[in-house]
């Protein structure tokens, strides 16, 4: 009887933890639904473009509101951790997730890429996460939102390479600035009339020879 009571108490504790977690996730999803619009669907091959880098095995950690890595976005499955394949294309960054919708960040929406020690749901230290900052485009009446998506590649050496690939992609989108023709150096023209009256301190060759 005593063992049965202990088992029931443990089962009740587990149930309460799961229930509280589920309620918390639902509230988080409801709260962030009005802050972050539905992410864009993955477009066709023509819009995605050829692969520039990858795919890499990684763990999709989470997505948070930009600048607050504890403000996890629960809406639209953006807060669900999952295994993933990450690749950089001409059209943007594709995160193919297991058990969740794929994530597509168009190149025009990406703001930056870098490394960080952690974010909501994962702390690894030593710049162990790749952070992709991008703007989820406006959709269904919800304004565009700037977010940070965290990825942890399986191999440590792939993190810096992934960041470089995204940065190179962004740099390739920048318009080329036309080179301005070099202007000839302009020399100061002295007045033709009475230079010695307006510039009495300056010595001229004919004055030096007279001396």
Largest β-sheet summary: 7 strands, antiparallel
**What ranges have pLDDT less than 50 throughout 5 or more consecutive residues?**
15-30, 187-211
Say what oligomer this is: single chain
Radius of gyration: 30 Å
Topology (SSEs and partners):
Layout lengths: L1 H32 L11 H4 L2 E15 L16 E8 L2 E6 L5 E4 L3 E7 L1 E2 L2 E2 L5 E8 L8 E9 L3 H17 L21 H4 L6 H6 L1
Written description of the protein model:
The protein is α+β, with helices and mostly antiparallel strands and 211 residues long. Helices cover 30% and strands 29% of the residues. It contains five helices and nine strands, in the order ααβββββββββααα. The protein has helices at residues 2-33, 45-48, 157-173, 195-198, 205-210, and strands at residues 51-65, 82-89, 92-97, 103-106, 110-116, 118-119, 122-123, 129-136, 145-153. The strands form two sheets. A seven-stranded antiparallel beta sheet has the order 4-3-2-1-9-8-5, with helices on one face. A two-stranded antiparallel ribbon has the order 6-7. Strand 8 (129-136) and strand 9 (145-153) form a beta hairpin. It is globular and about 90 Å long. The protein starts with a helix and ends with a helix. Residues 15-30 and 187-211 have low confidence and may be disordered.
